[in-house]
Amino acid sequence: MKLKEKISINEFDGKRLQIRLVEPIDNKKAVLTHYLHNIDNGVSKHYKKDALKVLKEFVTYKQDEENFSLAAEDALQQLLFEVENVPFPTPDNYSFKFIDLFAGIGGFRLAMQNLGGKCVFTSEWDKEAQKTYRANFGEVPFGDITKDQVKNYIPDGFDVLCAGFPCQAFSIAGKRGGFDDTRGTLFFDVAEIIKRKKPKAIFLENVKGLRSHDKGKTLETILNVLRNDLGYFVPEPQIINAKEFGVPQNRERIYIVGFRKDLNITEFEYPKPVKKKVTFSNVKEKKVVPTRYYLSIQYLQTLHNHKNRHASKGNGFGFEIIPDTGIANAVVCGGMGRERNLVIDDRITDFTPETKIKGGVNREGVRKMTPREWARLQGFPDNYVIPVADASAYKQFGNSVAVPAIQATANKILETIGIKIIC
User: Given the DSSP bridges, would you call strands 342-344 and 96-101 parallel, antiparallel or unpaired?
Assistant: First the structure.
């Protein structure tokens, strides 16, 4: 594997210090950034041994090997500066610790940090999502959580486990649908971590279809494992809609929360919808967007033809234009997520195509929403950095969670387990 590198030359005691920061193999950068993020608390010892090995690989003291330890300390301070100067650092005087599994671009982390939480471990295998996560939190997620090597880095003593795990079917024909029957699925890895670490609370998010997935057997198995095999009080899951928590997006997701039984918690109330009503106008770009977001004449006509064909068959399939006074459909990572969330924006003045398109730019003002508008639909603040190309950004926000809905539910979880909330 060819490694990309960035060379920084500093003066140290009159000699040249070369700090060689490479894009690491496996989880080296994750180990180092997790260590640096926890350098002022007890969690750091969990990562320290391996982190210092990684640091030694990254630092070369050019003239005097005896002074490596001093050079390493100098490099460590530089790297520490880099991970702390990010848009969303750990809150001062945090009141609880959590881990972020299947982290995506950090929707859970934003919500939990807003409430005063400290993330002590995160994992996300997608490289583009890792890039976005690092740009905003200064931390590289660990990779494949199914690997024991990665699980072994999870520290003890955190309060809440957060996971937006993918939905998979289980092979439970003729079985009781317990812990062992989930092997080979990503939920099994979540359950295994819960079994090992026994956090006070768990907070899982999934698509609404989990409720009916495999005729309800998948959800039944999940609840059986959490309640009976792992010993957690798990109230009935609830479908939460993002539009009821201050963002103009009709996005329904199932939330599953659980509490360790020794806490003697026997009831839980999900958050009530907020009274604040918002529409697309609240998230619409204030300035004229680049021409590349406007549909070509030919593509727009194709969408019209496609919708008409389905309408003639009695189907409702097709593109949709969201008015400024309307609520967006759920943003998803596939192409239809954009086609079902088109808007009219007649502020365009330059119809010169930015890319090679057939038929020129349409004159009806029909355009796609921008990645920033999708970010706002999911409740991400405007200082959230989008360091990737549009295609990756749409995918990442489509796969993410609605931050305000997550935060409202997390607030209830923390209140239930008696943790002080710092906002």
Answer: unpaired
Which three-class secondary structure state does DSSP give residue 195? Answer: helix
Q: Which of 119, 167, 333, 423 is catalytic?
A: 167
In terms of DSSP bridges, do strands 160-163 and 117-122 run parallel, antiparallel, or are they unpaired?
unpaired
Q: How far apart are CA 89 and CA 59, in angstroms?
A: 25
User: Tens digits of per-residue pLDDT, 391-400?
Assistant: 999 999 999 9
Q: How many CA atoms lie within 13 A of 266 on its CB side?
A: 1
Give me the residues paired with residue 361 across strands.
296
pTM for the complete prediction? 0.87
Q: Respond yes or no: is residue 333 known to be catalytic.
A: no
Domains in the chain (CATH in brackets) are: 5-84 (no CATH), 96-277+401-416 (3.40.50.150), 286-369 (no CATH)
- How large is the angle between the packed helices 44-58 and 68-84, nearest 10 degrees? 110
Considering only CA atoms, which of 112, 120, 122 is closest in space to residue 422? 112
pLDDT of residue 39: 83
